[in-house]
């Protein structure tokens, strides 16, 4: 069978070799392929055509012929579709908008040590550590402070501020930023890296730990650290074993050689110690003798139980002394040290550093040893920024009657053409419906906003003691959406130069800025309910508790607080639930509408960004006016020096100052507020201040009114005009009469 196949193959080969035409065709094809390959290679690497054989398709031939001989060589590749280059970009790392951080709340305002081991465990057990706290890179410094305070809302008091610190060695320091930079979320992500964020409050927290606990915990090294330290010491002793043996053998030849000092660096990146130029460096190799030292200097006697040397970044490495006269010097390995605690503290802090050594060095170099405090932006600056959006070319009209200020304000806010960014134009009318002549250039607006804040404080939408009010539940106000207009009125007053409310309770303000409210029993305005709750809180036995809660059964059912009581200790939680329902949960619907109104002109967002700066404007009455405050507030517009008018005006200035002192001593801040309202329309200095500044002019040509020479005022420009009189008693009587008989704008 194989022989037959071989015979067929030989016959086929003979036929091919005997056919001359077939051999010629095969030869031409081989030459053509070789010439095409040579031509293409020459085109690629020499840039000139080499007379290619045009045996391909017309498309291929035209493609080759379109290449210009003088063109750049790299352009040849574009004529070969399969050879097109592709971009080889490295895959970019995903940019996540959030990152996670461990946040540690320090229990003391004077804490400046890094927390380790036992201290961290104690803080974790007490809830002072948040693991994997999610932060956004887009947060600014104010939002970060607010979110951290919210996370530790049960630990940090509402009146305490916090400071963010980072670990630097064994100390806690505040990051030092360039002027104009703030510790935003992106900045924290860059600076802190793998470090934890330490939060130090402005006051001490109810925790038994103190800074000494943190220092004691530094003494704790884990088992791995102890093993690593022991290995380092054994390695050092072994490296000097041959040196000690050689020293014992050469003792008879060179008696002056007593000891050798071997410098051991604590860290690999620490520079070696500086050696004076006139003194050769000590040699520690086995083939050289140790350096000579003065024979009159005895070696320090150090036992093996002495601590290792102190290692700091600003000191040269400690000297390891080996006594050559002692046979046990190698095994004892005496080490000179001053502070073993500091050595362990630094070695214990090393795992907390980032793996990027250069970044750590740059961060540590930019930090100071003392933290810097961060102050909140003043509320006045924030309000000025919001007031810059007001369009003074557009106006919104308010027709106000002093007896129904709140109703007139609601009508103006409901008007379709009303826009809070437009300038307010207020026109008063008296009770008889006669228009007052005053045109609003600032004074009537301030008068209107002052009356509006007073009307809100005494309206049915608020309840509680004066200066400590909470929202009340009033069905008609809720139906007519007056809670929204109340919030809008407060926002408009703050931005348009009016007074702050100053009558909020701390619970209402806490709810407004997004924090948890903790109302007190005294904030319950219902006297009957207050008496019943107080009786429950004063119960001393379980039977008394059951009797005290029986009259509250229906109320507890409506409040969702009706539950079986099993022991006397249940009264505290029951009282807290009742107070929370009565003050907060009961008015949640009204509060939501009130909060929506406060968003007008961006006021609510600004308050939440700067809660501490705005707190005095909402929770406290304005600072009481004094004679000194009013004297500094008004600018005296005197005549030219040396003129007759100037001398008379200087006498009136003295009368004016004495009059303010008398009013303060006899009638107090309220009458001083009446003087300010007479001149400006506001009885207190508004948060934005006065624009223009209040001034005092002098009336030399005195018109007779009511048989008297009376002072006048232009509240639009905050100008008070005082009569030029020669006697103080006449001046005082004139001022008293004017203040007590003022009818309003444009009225005499």
From TrEMBL:
Give coiled-coil spans as residue ranges: none
Q: Which residues form the HECT domain?
A: 426-748
Q: Which UniProt keywords apply?
A: Transferase, Ubl conjugation pathway
Catalyses which reaction(s): S-ubiquitinyl-[E2 ubiquitin-conjugating enzyme]-L-cysteine + [acceptor protein]-L-lysine = [E2 ubiquitin-conjugating enzyme]-L-cysteine + N(6)-ubiquitinyl-[acceptor protein]-L-lysine
Q: Per its record, how is this protein called by name? A: HECT-type E3 ubiquitin transferase
InterPro entries from the entry? Answer: E3_ubiq-protein_ligase, HECT_dom, Hect_E3_ubiquitin_ligase
Q: Give the GO molecular function terms.
A: ubiquitin protein ligase activity
* Record: active site: 716
Report whether Chloroplast shows up as a keyword of the record. Answer: no
EC number(s) from the headed UniProt entry: 2.3.2.26
Query: Could you tell me where the Pro residues compositional bias lies?
Result: 270-310
Pathway it works in: Protein modification; protein ubiquitination
């Amino acid at each position: 069978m194989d022989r037959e196949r071989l015979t067929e193959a030989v016959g086929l080969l003979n036929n091919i070799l005997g056919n001359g035409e077939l051999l010629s065709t095969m030869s031409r094809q081989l030459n053509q392929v070789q010439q095409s390959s040579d031509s293409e290679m020459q085109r690629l690497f020499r840039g000139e055509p080499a007379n290619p054989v045009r045996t391909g398709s017309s498309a291929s031939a035209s493609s080759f012929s379109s290449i210009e001989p003088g063109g750049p060589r790299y352009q040849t590749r574009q004529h070969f579709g399969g050879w097109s280059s592709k971009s080889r970009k490295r895959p970019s790392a995903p940019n996540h908008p959030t990152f996670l951080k461990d946040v540690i709340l320090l229990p003391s305002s004077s804490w400046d040590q890094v927390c380790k081991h036992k201290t961290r465990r104690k803080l974790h057990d007490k809830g002072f550590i948040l693991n994997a706290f999610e932060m956004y890179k887009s947060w600014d410094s104010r939002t970060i402070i607010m979110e951290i305070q919210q996370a530790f809302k049960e630990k940090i008091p509402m009146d305490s501020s916090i400071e963010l610190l980072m670990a630097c060695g064994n100390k806690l320091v505040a990051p030092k930023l360039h002027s104009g930079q703030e510790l935003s979320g992106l900045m924290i992500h860059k600076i802190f890296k793998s470090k934890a964020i330490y939060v130090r409050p402005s006051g001490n927290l109810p925790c038994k730990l103190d800074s000494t606990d943190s220092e004691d915990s530094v003494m704790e090294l884990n088992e791995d650290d102890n093993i690593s330290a022991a290995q380092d010491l054994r390695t050092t002793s072994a490296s000097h074993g041959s040196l000690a043996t050689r020293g014992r053998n050469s003792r008879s030849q060179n008696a002056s050689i007593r000891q050798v000092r071997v410098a051991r660096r604590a860290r690999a990146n620490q520079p070696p110690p500086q050696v004076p130029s006139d003194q050769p460096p000590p040699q520690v190799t086995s083939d050289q003798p140790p350096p000579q030292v003065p024979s009159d200097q005895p070696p320090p006697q150090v036992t093996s139980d002495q601590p290792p040397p102190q290692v700091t970044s600003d000191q040269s490495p400690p000297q390891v002394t080996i006594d050559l006269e002692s046979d046990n010097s190698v095994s004892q390995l005496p080490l000179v040290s001053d502070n073993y605690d500091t050595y362990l503290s630094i070695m214990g802090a090393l795992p907390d550093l980032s793996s990027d050594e250069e970044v750590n060095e740059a961060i540590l170099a930019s930090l100071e040893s003392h933290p810097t405090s961060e102050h909140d932006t003043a509320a006045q600056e924030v309000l000025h920024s919001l007031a810059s959006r007001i369009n003074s070319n557009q106006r919104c009209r308010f027709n106000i009657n002093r007896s129904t200020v709140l109703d007139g304000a609601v009508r103006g806010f409901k008007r379709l053409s009303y826009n809070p960014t437009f300038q307010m134009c207020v026109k008063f009318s008296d009770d008889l419906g006669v228009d007052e002549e005053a045109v609003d250039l600032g004074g009537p607006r301030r008068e209107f906003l002052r009356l509006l804040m007073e009307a809100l404080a005494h309206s049915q939408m608020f309840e509680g003691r004066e200066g400590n009010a909470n929202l009340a539940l009033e069905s008609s106000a809720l139906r007519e959406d007056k809670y929204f207009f109340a919030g809008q009125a407060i926002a408009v007053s703050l931005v348009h130069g009016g007074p702050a409310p100053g009558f909020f309770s701390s619970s209402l303000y806490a709810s407004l800025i997004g924090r948890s409210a903790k109302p007190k029993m005294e904030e319950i305005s219902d006297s009957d309910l207050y008496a019943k709750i107080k009786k429950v809180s004063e119960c001393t036995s379980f039977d008394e508790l059951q009797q005290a809660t029986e009259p509250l059964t229906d109320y507890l059912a409506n409040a969702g607080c009706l539950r079986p009581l099993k022991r006397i200790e249940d009264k505290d939680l029951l009282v807290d639930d009742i107070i929370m329902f009565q003050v907060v949960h009961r008015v949640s619907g009204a509060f939501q509408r009130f909060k929506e109104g406060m968003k007008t002109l961006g006021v609510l967002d600004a308050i939440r960004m700067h809660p501490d700066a705005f707190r005095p404007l909402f929770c406290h009455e304005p600072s009481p006016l004094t004679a000194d405050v009013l004297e500094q507030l008004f600018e005296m517009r005197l005549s030219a020096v040396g003129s007759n008018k100037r001398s008379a005006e200087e006498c009136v200035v003295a009368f004016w100052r004495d009059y303010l002192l008398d009013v303060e001593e006899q009638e107090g801040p309220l009458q001083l507020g009446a003087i300010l309202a007479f001149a400006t329309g506001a009885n207190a200095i508004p948060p934005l201040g006065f624009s223009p500044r209040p001034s005092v002019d002098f009336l030399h040509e005195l018109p007779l009114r009511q048989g008297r020479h009376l002072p006048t005022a232009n509240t639009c420009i905050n100008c008070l005009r005082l009569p030029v009189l020669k006697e103080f008693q006449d001046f005082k009587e004139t001022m008293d009469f004017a203040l007590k008989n003022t009818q309003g704008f444009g009225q005499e």
